[in-house]
TrEMBL record:
Principal location listed in the UniProt entry: membrane
Membrane topology: Multi-pass membrane protein
Protein's name in the database: Cytochrome c biogenesis protein ResB
Taxonomic lineage of the native organism: Bacteria, Bacillati, Actinomycetota, Actinomycetes, Micrococcales
Domain (ResB-like): residue spans on this chain: 37-528
Highest taxon of source: Bacteria
Keyword Transmembrane set for record: yes
UniProt-annotated location(s): Membrane
PANTHER family: CYTOCHROME C BIOGENESIS PROTEIN CCS1, CHLOROPLASTIC (PTHR31566)
Regions that span the bilayer: 40-57, 93-112, 191-212, 475-494
Pfam families tied to this protein: ResB (PF05140)
Keywords, comma-separated and alphabetical: Cytochrome c-type biogenesis, Membrane, Transmembrane, Transmembrane helix
Amino acid sequence: MSRPSDHYDAPASAGIVQPHLGFAGWLRWFWRQLTNMRTALFLLLLLAIAAVPGSLVPQRSSDPNGVTQYFADNPDLAPLLDTVQAFDVYSSAWFSAIYLLLFISLIGCVIPRTKHHYLALRAKPPRTPARLSRLAGFTARIAPAGTDAQAAVESARRLLKTSGYRAAVFENRGETSVSAERGYLRETGNLVFHFALVGILITVGFGGGFGFSGQRVLVEGQTFVNTLLAYDSFNPGRFFNDTSLTPYKLTLDNFDVTYEEENLKAYGQPIDFTAEVTITPRGEAAEASQVKVNGPARTGGTDVYLLGNGYAPTLTVKDPNGVVVFTDSVPFLPQDANLTSLGVIKVPDGLAEQLGMIGFFYPTQATADSGAFFSSFPDLEYPLLTLNVYSGDLGLDAGVPTSVYSLDIDKMTQLTGGKTGVESIELKPGETRELPNGLGSVTFDDANPGAQNGDFSGSVLRFASFDIHHDPTQLWVLSFAVLALLGLLTSLFVPRRRVWVKAVPEQDGSLRLEYAGLARGEDPTLESAVSDLADRHTDLLLSSQSATPASEQK
């Protein structure tokens, strides 16, 4: 084929010249890339990957004490991680950027698809193809004698309508056919899933801004009041207002733990934790409740979760004249599965010198071959408390906050244990020992003094660590999550298909009925569906003909 006389071939060296996009063109290109479904899926995967560091290192929002401990255990690595906001992953700039880009991408994907889907729902089914024999499930039947083409197609249309198809009748070159389609619910479910995903993103962000989480450790018998100052640690959302706290009291009455004692392979493992609490909303009667693992108590717009537990030995320190200068139940932090626990006691006033004690508590004390103590069972079978005593400056007078679970011994003198040549103080519940250098005495109080000799059950109080969480969008998140699940299931299991029935007059005067289908995506039941339609339609024509009087058939 010859080219026009004015055709010009550019030299091969000229290359391809790209059009100049300009600022608006580049913005349009960027928007199209961002609102591409592949980009949305990539951002969703990236968001999941970005959330991984939040499970590898403690977060300030949920475990501030763990962050403090991490800094103490990793003094070189922790500051580096802090510079990249690894301890505040879910509120970090990079996580928020991915979150917002995903939100914009989903909105940009879903809105055009919704418009397209709406127009498709209002449009007629496509015209019948000329050659149905090329399509899946093609089958042909001869209609009963005397069947009218228009009546056959109309009966097929009604049959398809009752089966949930959208149907339309077409005429083409003397051939009458019906075109039907179904499965638009599949795309509807897909859109519902994505809209629900956007709803989850919005509500989670809203809940994070207006909610809060706080932690409080309670020893058996202690009471917590839901006020800002009563929390051990508190992490409010960006828009939280402390006037929104609903006042109530929560008292830890008892903490029960059930341990495995029959299966030797799992001996000593905890089976159940139950915190028996009493909740008293302001102006209302007190009511008993329980807090279990994955079974929070709900009150005052908050969920009270059980985080951890351990023992809280009650110690009383007296001066040389027998005057009590310190008495408290001190939570000891568990160090192993058998609850060998570490605790710190600080006595800043009342004695000749400030006193600090580092204690180890063994619920069931046993001795290793090396002579070291350890706990062989987590329950109170043979409890023992050992104390190493230090005197000097506790570092409290400088006004710098210090952890209640650590003792800075740099400016203190060790009086017992270690290289002092003085044995550590050892106490069983109810026993009293003299402090070194005539400083006074220390008593390990028995919380159950009326028990029989040798029965240590209940002799040491337990503590429970609670996480008190408020999220005003929990119901919304649940609703959107259910919608997302329903939409996903619908998009997965509803087939999208088109079906055609054509009436073709034959030269011998008979009427041939052709049936075929076309699937959009995988549809393993399409051929059987077409065959079933042909059978049902043929039976319908036979039954309608038999119901017609013989005079009318003539």
